[in-house]
Amino acid sequence: MDIFTGKRSKKGQAELAWRHQALSTHDPLAAWQGVLTARGLHESDAFFNPALSGLPDPFLMVDMDKAAQRLADAVQNKEKMHVFGDFDCDGVSGTSILVDALSAAGVDVMYSIPHRADDGHGIGVDAVRAAHQAGVTLGLSVDTGTTCLAASDEAITLGFDLMITDHHLPDAVLPKAFALLNPARQDCGFADRVLCGTGVAFFLLMATWKVLSGRGQRPAYDLKQLLDRVAMATVADVMELRGVNRILVHHGLQQLKTSPSIGMSALMDSARVKRQRISTESFGFYMAPRINAAGRMRHGEEAMRLLCCQDPDEAVLLAKGLDNCNQERRKIETDTYKEAVGKLQDLQTNSRSSSQEEFEILAVYDNHWHAGVVGLVAGRLARQHGRPAAVGFVDNDNNIRVSLRGKAGFHVGDLLHACAEHLSGFGGHAGAGGGTVKAASWNAFVLDFTKAVQQQQRDGGVNNHLLIDGVLTLEALHIGLARRLQKFEPVGHGNPACLWLLPEVQVLEMKKLKGGVLRLRLGDDTSFANAVVFGGSALEEDLQAGLTVSLLGKLQPDDFRGGDAVQFVVEDVLV
């Protein structure tokens, strides 16, 4: 298949690279065996049977034993607790599972979600003081707290215990909390450091339930019913779907298909997600954006109320509110993205006229941009340019609050550390992060950020290759192969869906459907096949009837036609 060397995808402008070897085949079974070989798997591997029994012992996490013992004491003694959450999907989901489980265990538990623009990420000192004044004796954080040194010190001063559950990269100095549950600690590494904040909180509950069982006091509440939210948070935070996360997400999807919580059921209905067809894409494209929209446009507490809701009628109203919020977010995001592109083009023009080394700047801010969309705009820029981007807004103190998003091969958390001298506060992990930049330090931040991106690009050998699993003929598009490929579910970051190349096929027919969907009929010298393109406007010109094209895409059963029908879901066209 050397004729495809150097070919690129049209949308992503990425060069093709073969996951194993570019063998063209018309045999579905040979294609399946090739995929297994390329990914280093066998059909008998535990990978294809992600059982809950495969989860690691939670007590292997650093500080877990004392954290679980302390939380078990608090449950038994009916202490008043407070959960310090965060406003994104991970933070809200984690807060909700702690509140639901501990409330079911008979605990009086309060919670607080910070406001994105007014409070920012992290545990505020004022929130700690308010919890103490309310009589709280034990505080728990979710998806935050590792860099909140002042909040931890304040809890000690006030005399109540604060336990941190988080997954963000620590600073050199750790908080003086009663316990710090964070797999990203240098002395930890639990579960290969791939858990999201909600995942860490879930393991704390697992450990606590084990301690209570040993004392003969295990709550009747089944923690498995929390897995729907653990799964959504894991996908929303773009965690790698391997190992522990693969097990959690697999069983979370099963929970949603059989007995979702009231809030999650209403969320699925609002997002028009069919229960039996739910997938990781349902989380990433339809459900999580609605949860995130609350924190982006209004307040994360609105999403929290939905996820903890016990009244079906109220849940429908709350879900509808998040749907409206998400529509507002989409419009503002689109407008901001267009403005950001224009500003960056101006910056690039100016930088080329100076004596600076030529490298396209991907850092920009504006006084009037909405706090809730700058991270999304950074994500779009990162995807477009193939490397991290930073986008900011100006807060009430005239500081620039910047959000960073990355691409595979880069580490955003490390980029933030490289710019630490210009940041008054920051936090992040591999794919995302953010911090606060003094307005007078912006240019210096941009310079160091750009240099750090360049350095990671040099050190890590970052490339823009698109990994292809194999080359198929139309004859190989068989239901047997399609059903075998479903065994890779759940797919996502760290476990991508199999991507195939269909070389030199003719577009016999192309129909435009509602929602930008294109239906195709493909043919070659011997066979025919059906294909579909979702959001196909960008590719429509290249898929006109009569053209011969080479396509990249995924093979799936065609649920619409049923039976043994399959369809090739076109992701891109080669140029």
Structure description:
- With 575 residues, the chain is an alpha/beta fold.
- The protein folds into 3 domains: 2-46 and 466-573, OB fold (Dihydrolipoamide Acetyltransferase, E2P), CATH 2.40.50; 56-323, inorganic pyrophosphatase (n-terminal core), CATH 3.90.1640; 355-463, Roll (Diaminopimelate Epimerase, Chain A, domain 1), CATH 3.10.310.
- It has 16 helices and 19 strands.
- The protein has a 5-stranded mixed barrel. Strands 4-3-5-6-7 form a 5-stranded parallel sheet, sandwiched between helices.
- A hairpin with a 4-residue loop joins strand 16 (518-523) and strand 17.
- The longest helix is centred in the middle third of the chain and has 41 residues, at 312-352.
- The radius of gyration is 25 Å and the shape is globular.
- It starts with 14 loop residues before the first strand and ends with a strand.
What's the CATH first level of the largest domain? Alpha Beta
Largest sheet entry: 5 strands, mixed, barrel
Helical proportion? 25-40%
Number of strands: 19
Q: Provide the CATH architecture of the largest domain.
A: Alpha-Beta Complex
Main structural class: alpha/beta
Instruction: State mean pLDDT (0 to 100 scale).
Output: 91
In the CATH hierarchy, the third-tier topology of the largest domain is known as inorganic pyrophosphatase (n-terminal core)
- How many helices does DSSP assign? 16
Alpha-carbon distance between the two ends: 15 Å
**What overall form do the CA principal axes indicate?**
globular
Strand content is 15-25%
Given as residue ranges, the uncertain stretches (5+ residues, pLDDT < 50) are 353-358
- The order of strands across the largest sheet is 15-16-17-19-18
How big is the Rg? Answer: 25 Å
Number of domains: 3
